[in-house]
Protein 1
Amino acid sequence: MDKVGELLSRGVETIYPSKEELEKVLRSGKKLRIYEGFDPTSPQLHIGHLVSLRKLRQWQDLGHEVIFLIGDFTGMIGDPTGKDKTRIPLTKEQVKENAKTYKDQASKILRFDGENPVTIRYNSEWLEKMSITELAELMRYLSVQQIIERDMFQRRLKNNMDIAISEFLYPLMQGYDSVAMEIDVEVGGNDQLFNMMIGRDLLHRIKRKNKFVMTTPILEDSMGVKIGKTEGNAIAISDSPNDLYAKLMALGDDVIVKGFTYLTDIPMDEIQNIEKEIEKGNHPMIYKKKLAFEIVKGLNSDEEAKNAQENFERTVQQKEVPSDIIELPVEDNYTVAEVLIAGDFVESKSEAKRLIEQGGVELNDKRITDPNTKAEEGILRVGKRKFVKIKFNN
């Protein structure tokens, strides 16, 4: 498969209006303007974002103009997609703070300098300047029927839950990004399809310009739950190599093939062989370790990936204490629960109690079952991969 073929198929769910039409444009040699928007509702980009970020990198490598759009304005409104209640609004200051390191994080995948650099833009550039008259004019392009038919709103209506007017406006605001930048292609997760198609419709009506929409599949865990910040299971691409490797190893085995396909450069024929080997009953741990290694290497370096794998094998598989364990000084009258709070493993005594009762804490190789157990000097293990050396203050 050549680069254009891989761009249009690997890690792609759907292309609108059609894959064939977009391929025809690309084969003609025409250079296009592509973008994806990222609302800074959290300070971290996660591996769910990595699927489409890698797709943007493919576009960049083929010489097309790529825009990394930070939705600093739409981030304050809050995307209602998939939400069962209205988001808590963010302030301008919160959004700005969240976006502070987005470029540094995205630079693990995209090039922001050198040949054909990615451009960063903010949608406050045009949305903040929009007058009430312009907004009213724009609202004519969207009907209540279009919005209210969305599954999430139907669920809320059925449960007598509120729908904020701002949630009706969100797809209009996001859709206008395509108009303001005169986009040729928008890339995004398949959960964003409605918003992306609104943008396609607006661009055609206002500018008489066609836009392609390329959706990428959503990365899900073993329970079929989206891996993301809202769901509370996000794995940040800025995590340390050791943490990133360990968190990837905690994912279900059914993520392996999808992970290789969406998140690595491993050739597809090799991935197909891996899938066959797993179906034959070969232990998936071998391939999950390879997947974790490839992702850590892609976001960091080969050496850091090797070190992360060795650390995982030593501390999790062989249950050895890491050589770089951190020492935590505490008072000699602390309970284990208080040590957990002092070490920032939990935020409250109730959370510490729950963690201990679930069997997630060991002190000097002994499982702790009572939160009021008196602490002693030695090695505290929290979960499978977090360690601290307790040292009493003199």
Protein 2
Amino acid sequence: MPGPNKNNDRRVGFTATIPVEVIYAAGYKPVDLNNLFITSEHPTLMLEKAEAEGFARNICAWIKGIYSVVLEHDFRTVIAVTGGDCSNTIALAEVLENRGIEIIPFEYPRERSRKLLTEAMEAFMSHFHVSWAEVQEAKQWLDRIRMKLRKLDRLTYESNLVTGVENHLFLVSSSDFWGEPERFEAELDRLIHETHKRSPIREDIRLGYLGVPPVFGDLYQLIEEKGARVVFNEVQRQFSMPFFDEQDIVGQYLHYTYPYDAAGRIPDIERAIRERRIHGLIHYTQTFCYRQIYDIILRKRLSVPILTLEGDRPGNIDTRTVLRIETFLEMLRGVAG
């Protein structure tokens, strides 16, 4: 399977995880606009630029960040995920389209329906003029890397040789494989090889992280400084398609939990609690995001204590949130002890 064309006019930005196999099958370079925003040199400046153009203060930071990086990096084509993600994306897509940017919609069906998802994928594939056979070939190519991501995940919670932030960074980047799967795979191989020289990490509290990736820049490092470690990154792991060995690509994206209802996430999280011996969960919610409401379901259905954190703009964790994390860890130590 040949890699994507590296020319800038072959870049395609996207607002949330999509069947990335379609983009690679068509010879384009996919770019996760969320990752591009949060890893930019000055993400807060991206927000200020969007607000200067009229985006309200109470609009989600990720929406404003995506808008700014699309313009900053001169994307000509953006895939807007209009179902299964933030409803604000619909309006964002119209604003970008008004700026002359080509918008290609992709919508996960509300129901976890094979028929509806197949139809959505076929419509998406038609935009890029690729066949099921070509998409399947791309899947096989990317599954080789996903197998190594599964190994990295096991090294995190079984062998205790990978930090929570390393786990987070590689899994969250598997939404687009940096647009350069060969380079991504080489760096992943390097990290896995490096773990052979490490001693197991010893922490007294093992945590799971739920929800969208954090806007905080130092969450994982802070947790480890306090003697705990994140051994399960729920949504980031979903980006890596943990059920990639489902031979049928439609089945693979039916197993993907993020776009569907919260109840569908519960078995995956509970399995992780058991397998990874998790003492407690951190549920991150983004300010002004409807997904905050899912906290009610998660607290009612899950079997371990949950600390809910809310983030608004990029930056380090504030003193009040640090204190809440410390108190939560001490409570878990009391229970575990």
